[in-house]
C-alpha cells in the first residue's frame, strides 16, 4: 500500500508549528519593539512610533560596536579553547582506564552548576584580597593582582570562567561521537601502519567532523548569549572592557529603560549569530548525507 504524500506533514506539522511560533514570535516582537519608544510599566497603547530612530541611535552608539568587538573576541577565545580542550579530553578518555568513570563525572560537573553560582564562585576566586587565586600565586612569591579591576585581567577572568563551565559540553559531544566511530576503519588504519597522530587527525576526527561542526555552532551561539556569569563576575567592568553585547542589551533595556533601542541592538545580535551559524553549517555541511 502506497503511503500518502501528506502523511509525514500530518505527523510533523504540529511540532513544526509549535516550534515556529515559539521561535518566530520573540523575533517578530523584538523587531516590532525596535520601531517604538516604550518603557516597562506603561501600557502598550502609550508606545510612541519612532520609525528607524532606535536603530539609528543603536548603530551610531560607539558602545554598541565596542560591545560587539568584545563579544567577538570573547567568543573566539572561549570557543577555540573549549573545542581544543574538549576534544583532547575526549581522546584521552576514549579507551577505558582506571578511574575513567570518575574523571568523566568530574569533567561534567561544571556544566551542571547554575550560571549565577558559577559567577559567584569565580568572583570569590578572583577576589583581590581574599581570593584563592591570589593566595596560590602568593605561595610562589607573586604579588596579589586586582583581577576584576584591570581591563585585561578582567577579560581573562571571564574567559577562564566560561572555559571551565562549558568545556564539558564539548567533551560530552566528542566522547559520544568518538564512541560511534567504526572500529573496523580504525583497525584497518592500524594494520596499514598508521601512527597515533595519523589515526587521530586523518581518520578519527575527519569521521566526526559533522559533530565537531554542530558542536562549534552550538558553542558559538551560546557564547553570544552568555549573560549571567559576566553579570555577576564583572557587570561589564571595569568600564566597559567586559561588556558583551547581551549584557549591553540588558543594561540598555532594564537600567536605561530604553527598550526600543535594546530591541534594535538585539536584532543586530540575532543577525551576527545567524551569519556565524550559517558559516559553521556551510563549513562542513553536517546535514548532507554521506554517500
The coarse overall form would be flat
CATH class of the domain at 73-94 and 159-285: Mainly Alpha
Low-confidence stretches: none
Structural class based on helices, strands and sheet pairing:
mainly alpha
Kindly provide the radius of gyration, computed on alpha-carbon positions and rounded to a whole number of angstroms.
Answer: 23 Å
- End-to-end gap: 29 Å
Number of strand segments: 2
Helix content: over 70%
Give the oligomer, counting copies of the same chain as homo and different chains as hetero.
single chain
Give helix and strand order, one letter per element, not per position: HEEHHHHHHHHHHHH
The neighbouring-strand order within the major sheet is 1-2
Q: Count the helices. How many?
A: 13
Tell me about the largest β-sheet. Answer: 2 strands, antiparallel
The CATH architecture assignment of the domain at 73-94 and 159-285 turns out to be: Orthogonal Bundle
What is the CATH topology descriptor of the domain at 73-94 and 159-285? MetI-like fold
Please state roughly what percent of the residues sit in beta strands, choosing from under 5%, 5-15%, 15-25%, 25-35%, 35-45% or over 45%.
Answer: under 5%
CATH 4th-level superfamily of the domain at 73-94 and 159-285: MetI-like
Average pLDDT metric: 86
Structure, briefly:
This protein has 291 residues and is an all-alpha fold.
Task: Write structural notes for this entry.
The chain has a domain at 73-94 and 159-285: MetI-like (MetI-like fold, Orthogonal Bundle), CATH 1.10.3720. It is flat and about 75 Å long. The protein has helices at residues 7-33, 53-59, 62-92, 100-112, 115-125, 132-138, 151-179, 183-191, 196-207, 209-225, 228-233, 245-255, 259-284; strands spanning 36-37, 48-49. It has 291 residues and is mainly alpha-helical. Strands 1-2 form a two-stranded antiparallel sheet. The chain is 71% helix and 1% strand. It has 13 helices and two strands. α1 packs across α13 (259-284), α10 runs antiparallel to α13 (259-284) and α12 (245-255) packs antiparallel against α13 (259-284).
Amino acid at each position: 500500500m502506497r503511503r500518502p504524500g501528506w502523511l509525514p506533514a500530518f505527523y510533523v506539522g504540529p511540532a513544526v508549528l509549535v516550534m515556529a511560533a515559539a521561535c518566530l514570535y520573540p523575533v517578530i516582537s523584538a523587531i516590532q519593539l525596535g520601531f517604538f519608544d516604550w518603557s516597562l510599566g506603561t501600557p502598550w497603547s502609550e508606545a510612541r512610533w519612532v520609525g528607524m530612530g532606535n536603530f539609528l541611535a543603536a548603530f551610531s552608539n560607539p558602545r554598541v560596536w565596542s560591545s560587539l568587538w568584545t563579544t567577538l573576541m570573547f567568543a573566539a577565545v572561549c570557543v577555540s579553547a573549549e573545542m581544543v580542550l574538549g576534544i583532547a579530553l575526549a581522546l584521552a578518555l576514549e579507551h577505558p582506564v582506571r578511574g575513567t568513570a570518575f574523571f568523566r563525572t568530574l569533567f561534567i560537573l561544571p556544566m551542571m552548576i547554575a550560571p549565577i553560582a558559577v559567577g559567584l564562585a569565580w568572583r570569590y576566586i578572583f577576589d583581590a584580597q581574599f581570593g584563592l587565586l591570589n593566595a596560590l600565586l602568593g605561595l610562589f612569591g607573586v604579588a596579589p593582582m586586582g583581577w576584576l579591576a584591570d581591563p585585561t585581567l578582567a577579560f581573562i577572568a571571564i574567559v577562564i570562567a566560561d572555559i571551565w563551565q562549558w568545556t564539558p559540553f564539548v567533551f560530552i559531544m566528542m566522547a559520544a561521537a568518538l564512541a560511534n566511530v567504526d572500529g573496523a576503519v580504525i583497525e584497518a588504519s592500524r594494520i596499514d601502519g598508521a601512527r597515533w597522530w595519523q589515526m587521530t587527525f586523518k581518520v578519527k576526527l575527519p569521521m566526526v567532523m559533522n559533530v565537531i561542526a554542530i558542536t562549534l555552532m552550538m558553542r558559538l551561539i551560546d557564547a553570544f548569549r552568555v549573560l549571567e556569569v559576566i553579570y555577576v563576575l564583572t557587570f561589564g567592568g571595569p568600564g566597559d572592557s567586559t561588556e558583551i553585547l547581551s549584557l549591553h542589551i540588558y543594561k540598555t533595556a532594564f537600567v536605561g529603560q530604553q527598550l526600543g533601542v535594546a530591541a534594535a541592538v538585539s536584532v543586530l545580535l540575532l543577525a551576527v549569530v545567524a551569519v556565524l551559524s550559517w558559516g559553521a553549517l556551510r563549513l562542513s555541511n553536517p546535514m548532507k548525507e554521506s554517500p
